[in-house]
Known about the structure:
Number of helices of chain B: 7
Strand order of the largest sheet of chain A: 8-7-13-9-10
CATH superfamily of the largest domain in chain B: Glutaredoxin
Strand content of chain A: 15-25%
Largest sheet of chain B: 4 strands, mixed
Distance between the termini of chain B: 27 Å
Shape of chain B: elongated
Oligomer: heterodimer
Order of helices and strands of chain B: HHHHEHHEEEH
Number of domains of chain B: 2
Radius of gyration of chain A: 22 Å
Largest sheet of chain A: 5 strands, mixed
Helix content of chain A: 25-40%
CATH class of the largest domain in chain B: Alpha Beta
Structural class of chain B: alpha+beta
CATH topology of the largest domain in chain A: Rossmann fold
Strand content of chain B: 5-15%
Order of helices and strands of chain A: HHHHEHHEHEHEHHEEEEHEEEEHEHHHH
Structural class of chain A: alpha/beta
Helix content of chain B: 40-55%
Number of strands of chain B: 4
Radius of gyration of chain B: 18 Å
Amino acid sequence: MAAPAQRRIIFQHIDEPGYSNDLACYVRNGGYEVLKKSVTRPPAELIDEVKKSGLRGRGGAGFPCGVKWGLVDRKSGKPIYLIVNADESEPGTFKDRYIMHQDPHQLIEGTMISCFANNVKQAYIYIRGEMPHGARILEKAIAEARAAGFVGKNILGTTYSCDIFVHRGAGAYICGEETGLIESLEGKRANPRIKPPYFPAVLGLYQCPTIVNNVETLCHVKYIVEHGGDAYTKVGTPNNTGTRIFCVSGHVQRPGYYEFEAGKITLGQLLYEVCGGPLPGRTFKAVIPGGSSAKILRFGERFKGKRKVGAEMVDYDWGVEDVPMDFDSLGMIGTMGGSGGVIVMDDTVNMVEALANINAFYSHESCGQCTPCREGSLWMKKITTRMVHGQARNEDAALLKSVADQIPGRTICAFGEACSWPTQSFIAKFGDEFKQYPETKKTAKPAGAHELV
Amino acid sequence: MNLQPATLQSIDEVITHYPADQKRSATLPLLHLIQEDIGYLPPETCEWVATKLGLQPINVLEVITFYPMFRQKPIGRRHIKVCRTLSCALVGGYKTCEQFEKEFNTHRGDISPDGEVTIDFVECLASCGTAPVVLIDDDLHEKVDCAKAKQLSDQIKAEAKKR
């Protein structure tokens, strides 16, 4: 079956010749019209549209945005904050970068609509430290929007006021975790907070109710408010509404970003048709479908079970290629859609070495406050690095698994899961390769194989 | 602290981005501004920022030591950050890094003998579709294979000669 055409809602203007990131260009293309209409509507109506839309957060967890907004404590009398999570750091993910660099006003408009809907007093965009140009582009765009009355005091002549400031991170992955991000914005180490009681919607920034939304999610809000929540549910599939931006990297002919209706394209269509398939002379071996912490899939494995289609339960029997790319289908086969980062590995890759690369990442990025994660991520890195650069033992796979199994569920934040899932899934699916590694090491690497650690 | 007037001005401005009783929030912005001005964060930074924001020096030190982008030692004139993470490594990121090391006769983490560069491995730079990527100071360079690494190194060397 041929892959469907891309449906570019969020990336409509990305890479469009002649499209620039200034206010004039954005307004020429109909920009800020949705905000103008929004400020004449009751805020509760806007929140309802988002609830009806079924929009799920695009940062990784896929939590329904309307539900998140519904949890905000509006009775405390404390100011409400909104933080744009622009700390795009999950390996394999690179969508927000292009929105911020090429279409920053789309984000600002989505942010202001969300702020108005939720009576937010002040918004911050927390952007990765490694995106200094992105921070400058956003600052310039906010200044333009402020001068035009779209941001700041008395927005568009109304009594509503809300400003946006850009706040730069400084290279710590854990700042993508929303409570770690809040700690960081408060000027501290980004140690995630324990939940309960520190749900951001109740006790967030400065102990005030706070909404933390991903860059792409806020852009979807703009589209939803423009077209209505019901219309949005017609894009994508039930419970996986709207579009998804897939960031494909690794061993494919055409890596890059592609926006499709959620659940309307399979992993096989995406990798073979859209991305041009494997490099010449190679075959696909494995794929991580939702950012590096998502559990790996092995080409050749099959997934069977029952799933809901409409009101009926039907059997499914899928190969990796057949899996529809949406939160629920990927969840059903034991992995996740996450942030949309699809990392592809071909037959030149040794899975022990690939895991060693990932483990080095997680051990570098653990914030260190929970012992299982701090020590566990370090030991998984040490073991896999030793296997590659020192002596590999037959019992290493069992040892790695025992370390990984002792982390999830025992930490304050989801980093514990994120750092153990790669090890658990690599060993579950490529266990033989780990057992054989002491022998494999003695033989020559396949042609075209790269050093990974 | 010997900071330029423009830096001091930016520091006073950025503090206003946060509520008056939450000045601590300006810690990261201040450290960025100081590092951009001086090139690194000298020991007196903790005391200076703490005084400016009404904190204890330890509050600042614990932030400096947590975030990988803050450095307490000088580096070369240019900072070459090569992405080490999976998508870049899968298409040759390690070779790219070695090429830079060879070009400047140095090792990761050290200042090159000519003082021109410091080369570091960093974790994912969020541009995996154009791997391998390299951040040189503020500029992202995409699809940096060995040939492009050599070309970028030659540019840096040519600029150094002009000085």
